[in-house]
Specification:
Layout lengths: L6 E3 L10 E6 L2 E6 L17 E2 L4 H8 L10 E3 L4
Antiparallel strand pairs: 1-4, 2-3, 2-5
Length: about 80
C-alpha cells in the first residue's frame, strides 16, 4: 500500500454500523456489511488499523484483502469522519 501511495497513516473512525468486514479464504475474498459477527456485542476491539485513501468502501475492501491478517481472521473496513 505504501508503494502505491494509498497508505496515509491514522485517523478517527465512524461508527461500526457503517463498516464492512473482509475475510479471505483459500484466496477468495468475501465482503459483508457491518462488523465481524463475533464482535457485534462489543467484546473485541481492533489491535491495529490502516488508513488508506480509496474511492469508497468497496475499493478499500479490495485493498484490505491483500493484508495477510485477512487470511486467518477478518478485517473491518470503515470510512473516516
Amino acid at each position: 500500500m505504501r508503494d502505491t501511495g494509498i497508505y496515509i497513516g491514522m485517523g478517527q473512525l465512524v461508527g461500526r454500523d457503517q463498516s464492512k468486514t473482509v475475510r479471505v479464504t483459500e484466496g477468495a475474498s468475501k465482503v459483508v456489511d457491518g462488523p465481524p459477527s463475533r464482535d457485534r456485542d462489543g467484546t473485541a476491539s481492533p489491535i491495529a488499523y490502516f488508513l488508506i485513501d480509496c474511492t469508497g468502501l468497496d475499493d478499500a475492501a479490495e485493498w484490505v484483502a491483500h493484508i495477510p491478517a485477512a487470511s486467518y481472521g477478518s478485517i473491518e473496513v470503515r470510512p473516516t469522519r
